[in-house]
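User: I'm putting together notes for a lab meeting next week and I want to include a structural view of one of the chains we've been expressing. I don't have a solved structure, so I'd like a prediction I can at least talk through. The sequence is below, exactly as it appears in our construct file.
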Amino acid sequence: MQHWVARFFFAVVAALAAAGVIAGTACTRWGTPNPVTPTVAPLSNLYVDASVGSDTTGNGSMSKPYKTLTKAVAVLTAAKNISPSGVTITLAAGNYDSANGEVFPIVVSKSVTITGSNYVSGPKAGSFVNGLGEDTTFEQVVHAPPKSAYSTLDVIPPAAVSIGSLYLGASKVKLPSARAFYASLDVLGTVTGGVATFGAGIASSPRNVDGVIVPGGSFSCASCSIRGNDFGIGALSVAPPTSSPSGTGPSVVLTHGQGDSTISAGVANILTDGSINVTVSGETFARARYAYTDALQGVVVTTLRGTVDFGGGAGGSSGGNDFIGARSTEILVTRRVETVSALDDIWNPNQQRSDRNGRYPRTITFSAGASGKNVTIRGNATGSTVTVGPAPVPTPTPTITPSTSPSPSPT
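Assistant: Thanks for the context. Below is the predicted structure for the 411-residue chain, given as C-alpha cells.
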C-alpha cells in the first residue's frame, strides 16, 4: 500500500512539473530542494484583431491576438505585473463593434497606449472602435438620471491613456429619449491623443450626439479631428477647483502637427462652464454656431475661471487658429471675469475692425457689451475680455559679452 502511495505521489509531482506549475527546483547532493519562484514576464504589449483574433484561444500576442478591445482592456485591468515602460494595445484594421463582441462603453482604469492601424484610409478601412453603451460613470459623477448618458470609451482616474491612429465613435446612434446625449469619449482621467478622429461617422446622426466630454479630466490632442452634432468638446468641473486663481479643473489642449486638426460641430466646437483651462493653437473651427463659448451649465458652483488661450496667453499658445465660418459669433463669453487671449489668429474679414485678410493689425481688447461676428461678450459678463491682434513681438535675449581676464604679471 505504501509503495502505491509513493508511486502516486511522484506521478502527481511529475505531472505538475510537466505542466509548469513546479519550475526550477534543484537538489543538492544531500537531497535538499531549493525552490525557484517562477518568473512572469511583465505585460507590455497586447494585440487585437477583429478579423482573425479570438478572446477564447488568443493570448494577446502578435501571433495569437484577441478579438476585442474589451478583452484586451480586461486583461490589462487584471494584470499584476506591468512593464515599467507601460502597456500598448495595438488594434489591427477592422470594425470593433458589438457584433464583433465589444461591450460598450469600454472603461479604461489603467494607463495604456491604444493605437490603431491604417488610419489615413478612413474608418471603413482603418481601426474603428464603433458603438455605444450607457455611461453610468458619468451619470454617477454628475448625478444624472439613468439612461441619460452614453459613450464609446470611458477613461477614469487614475488612468492616463494615449490614443493614436484610431477612429473612435459610433456609425449609428439611437438614444432612448431627447434628454439623453452621446459622446464618443468620456475623459474623467487623462487622455493624450495624436492623429486620431473622435466622433467618427456621426455627422448625419440626430441631435445630442457629440465628440468628447471632459468632466473633471484632462484632454490633450495633437492633429485630431473631432466631430459632434451639438458640441465637439464639452468640458466642465465636477468638483470645485480650489488651489490656484485659475482653478484646477479640467483642461483642454489642442495643437496642430502632421495631420487634420479640425473641430466640426453644430452648436459649439468648444463648450465649457467657464472653469476650464483651454489652450489651442493651429486649429480649424468649422461648421458651428460658435467656435468657443463658456455657456455650458455647470454642475458645481465656482467663481474661479480657467485660462483661455487661443494665442499669446498664459497657456503658451502660438495662435494660428482659423476662426472663420461661425454662424453667430466665433467667441461668445457669457460669464464674468473670463479672460481670453487670441493673438495671431485668422478671423472673418472686415468684421469688428479686422482687415480684409482676417487679421488684426493692432491689438484690440473687447469687453462686456461687445457684439459682432468675431467676438461677443454679454453685457452682464462684467470683467470679461477678449484680446485679439498680431503675434507678440519676441523679446530679444541680451547678448552677454564675456569679460576679458587681465594678463598675469610676469614674475
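A couple of points you could mention at the meeting. The chain is about 10% helix and 30% strand. The longest strand covers residues 149-155.

User: Perfect, that's what I needed.
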